[in-house]
Specification:
By secondary structure, the chain is α/β, with parallel strands linked by helices. The protein is built from four helices and five strands.
Length: 120
């Protein structure tokens, strides 16, 4: 099984691009959180847009919902210039994320396509 996420710093676009796909388990979420935080510590997030491409991510088990909330909080605390999430194709995951967003004061934008995310 391959990696479930890819974090790419796109300096020429002042963007941090995160692509998540597949079925995240609790341990996957913990490793992702650690790697993401390590990358954020190397940049000034207020100069970057964060695009999280969740189109290929699958619904998560209930015990991973807290990790989604933790991830959303990390995105917010980093204070990126803009925070954009490309909606998952899965309607179940979309609903799970919407429920998590209600738990935090989320100030990001949800869009339907990657092109839309880059154009914001």
């Amino acid at each position: 099984m391959g990696k479930l996420y890819d974090i790419t710093l796109q300096d020429e676009k002042d963007t941090v691009y995160v692509k998540v796909s597949g079925f995240f388990k609790e341990e996957d979420a913990k490793v992702y959180l650690s790697e993401f935080q390590t990358m954020v510590n190397t940049i000034n997030p207020s100069c970057y847009k964060l695009i999280v491409d969740a189109r290929e991510q699958e619904p998560v088990e209930t015990n991973v919902m807290g990790d989604i909330i933790a991830v959303l909080n990390i995105y917010l605390r980093a204070k990126f210039k803009k925070l954009v999430i490309v909606n998952p194709n899965s309607q179940i995951l979309k609903k799970q994320v919407e429920n998590c967003v209600k738990e935090v004061n989320f100030k990001g934008t949800f869009v339907g396509s990657l092109e839309e995310a880059y154009n914001l």
